[in-house]
Amino acid sequence: MDRAALFDVDGTLVDTNHLHVVAWWEALRQGGHRVPTHAVHRAIGLPGDQLIEHLLDPSRDRSDDARLSAAHDTLYGTSFERLQAFDRTAELLRTLAGDGWKVVLVTSAKDRELGALRRAIDADDALTQTATADDVEQGKPAPDPLLHALSLVGVPAERAVFVGDSVWDMKAARHADVVCAGLLCGGIPRADLTEAGAAAVYDDPADLLAHLSTSPFAAVPKA
Description:
It is built from ten helices and six strands; from the N terminus they run βαααααβαβαβαβαβα. It is of the alpha/beta class. The protein has two domains: 3-16 and 84-219, 3-Layer(aba) Sandwich (Rossmann fold); 17-78. InterPro entries: HAD-like_hydrolase_sf, HAD-like_sf, HAD-SF_hydro_IA, HAD_sf, PGP-like_dom2. It comes from Streptomyces olivaceus.
């Protein structure tokens, strides 16, 4: 029976979280909203509309939300050609694919962003599928993105492992009954990831690769 290796992308495989923080902070500032960067950082990983809802007063005039999101997209888009994957990211994905795992990217990124992220990762040969927030009604921390990803490759939740860097990733995996591993490279503390449901926590993709034999991936038998 097949196994699925599901991966968040921003902050997990590609070093983008702080770029997103600055882009959202500036977009919100331009819209007249003062939000501290640490609060923005904690919200990274939510789809754009949910991030705005999470950060701003619920009694606000929502007619400007689309403009805020568009401003973020424009600001973040200036970084596309400079995005960098974390060390050994491509090797991690290829190692899992070579061992028979169906590797799926599960991201809140839009199509244009996803293209830039995939170029930074440079391991399309290891990917089986990609799933974006546009494919589902609710993004993380709802389980919908992970359940959709599993449906794309026909793998049950108990035969999958999800890797992410945010509490939203951990909560989504928990809601989907998928074992999850957290990475610290997105900037969220170990304790927060563990409390949100991470079965194990690693520094970054290179650290996970070095410990694959004792990671949650090792607990899923090949057949």
